What does this fold into?
Amino acid sequence: MSNPQSLPAELTIYTIGALHRELLEWIGKVSRPRRAAAASTPWPVDASKVDEVDAAGMQLLIALSRSLQIKHRSLQLINPSTRIVQACHALGVTALLTADDAARAQQ
Amino acid sequence: MNNDYDDSFVAESLPAFVSEAQEHIEMLEQLLLQLETQPDNRELLDALFRSAHTIKGSAGIFGLDKIVAFTHHVETLLDGLRASQQALTPTLSTLLLQCNDQIRLLVNAAQGTNTDTDTAARTREALIEQLRSAYGESADTTPQPANATSPKSGVLLRRTISVAFNADTFRNGMDPLAILNYVGGMGSVPRMHCDMAAVPTLQEIDPESCHLAFEFMLDSDAGGEQIEAAFSFVRDDCTLAIGDALPAVTDATFTAPLVVASPDNIIALPDDAQLEVIAPVAATSVTAPNTQQNAPDSARKPSDENRFIRVQADRLDHVINLLGELVIATAGASLLARHSRSSTLIEANQQITSLVEEIRNGTLQLRMVPIGETFSRFRRVVRDTAAQLGKNIVLEIVGGETELDKSVVEHITDPLMHLVRNALDHGIETPEQRLATGKPAQGCLTLSARHESGSILICISDDGGGINRDKVLARAWERGLVEPGTTPPDADILKLIFQPGFSTAETVTNLSGRGVGMDVVRRNIEVLRGTINLFSTQGEGSRIEIRLPLTLAIIDGFLVSVGASKFVFPLDCVVEVIESRATSLTLDARGRSIVELRNQILPVVSLRSLYALDSPEPERSSIVVIHVGEQRFGVLVDQLHGQHQTVIKPLGQILRSLRGVSGSSILGSGEVALIFDVHSLCQLAVQPLATFVASATANSNAPSHLQL
It folds into this structure.
């Protein structure tokens, strides 16, 4: 597996057009896991750089996670910035975070 | 420089501000009066606030600080009313009506109609004090949540809220994340669930379309309305359901637990599982577009604002004058066309004439306003006066949509005011008096209007005590208007009231009783070429009927001639025509006769005799049958000339008092035709018929009727 892709600093309505095209290229390269596993294999995406995020940006991530599911992968945001953690909580998509990150940010 | 520009802007635009502000002031008064019978009506309260807000805002643009400062306090109270922070009590209603009067004074002062006085300024300060204590109280108390089931504020309540954002949410510039953050800030969110399954995959999604839907719990001490208000920017872009408030308990005692999203759950293919788990929301569902937030203004203003154009009255008058000239010129051209005997020319002229007629009708319509606007102004008068006199009176308005010419409306308002005051003061009795005679304690005053044979008929009727004939007679004897001891017929007694200086009131009140009223009223109405009649039944009530012409400018007429003189009858009054019969009527001294028409007696007036016209009587004459209200009578003329568009020109000063003639017109040939006032003519023709018939049958000579 190559280095995890990382999300850009701005994940908003203004940037999702370009990001969508990039992600479509990514998803093409994602293969199903070699071994069928009971649970889906996490597909990490680095989210440390995300500085600005809005609902449109988050929606795109949700779309990405759905596409990954079909390939038995689950999107996992690693090293998430505070911003994106807040957004995940506000929109009820903490599933995209690791359990630790989700729990930690509850404070 | 800047100041000059500003000054000229103000000078030019101030009249527009004043006239709009006046409309809002009238609207405020009407709304307040409507609200007295339905103080909880949200739409009316909203409209009330908007009107005050608009006045304040516009006044601010023109730097009219006094108006801004005063209206601000009114606006604050109105804001509290519409947010249901307090109720509109009768006391507040009276206070607001008084404040509105002050705003009216200030607006008039701004345009120079009157100057603001110190007394007025002190009145305003007193009113501001009252306003302050009215809304100041509500500002101290914690705002009551609109939700009736919720307990007093400060207690945390839990609500289940579901919101689904429409596809255009992003395109309309909205961000659901920001909205949910804001809502979350109103308390705490123990559960938040996103319907991720509703979001398409990367390959299918249009990233700029919104597919987000959420369901969550909100623990907050905010009221249901406040929460709804948090979504106000996206109301048109989402489907929102806010559940009933329940006491917030620390843990899940909800009907269905929301799925705690975890990576494992996501595998279970999303189309079914997560959706089923979403708790059915026992909601006071508030689906978005256009329902309550954009409440249609019941006072009919917003849609009307798009449909009206403000026009200067004198420009309209100018167009109507030109139109009159056009009608006359067209008549002249038609006459020439007929002489030319060219059928194409005659036809062309006919086309022009009918087009001109259409323009005429359309243009005269422009000046028509519904009389309901005038009638509505009397609501306030009735309310205040009844209260002052300690009487219980309701005002009913019938036929408010009836239209009449704007200038007629302007002239009729004062006479109507006087008559209404009379009814309130003298007509309708106090509740005690009414109960004593077996009437309901509440008296009823009815203003009605309708069209009738080319006129508008306005009635003011009350169910009061009627006119006391004995009192009237006594006063008439006292003043020598009638031979003391004699009793004229009932109808004549009533007519005495219209004599100058007549009044039976024992005490002269501020309102009426000075005796300068009724004769002035009648004169004003006659100036408008109208008539006024009084009917009254003692103990039961009175009715005043005012008849006015629909328009002052151009009418459809019927042209006739006697000898060389031409006359016009308003076409609306002409029922039929008996053409060209051998003349053999016996006329009385005043030129009247009777005729039998389809087994009914028809009184007839001979124009020749009436106006002592010298020309020799022709062998054959025609009778034009005219109807006025219930009456019919005939007019004997030499020749009929048919329909004619008649432009009314007023009579010169000398001829103003001529009875039976209401104006003159210039024909296409340049001749002048006199236009009849059929009501006066009717009175002449019809009364007193009984005596005439008696004398005619007593006369054994020629049969006094013409068999037809």
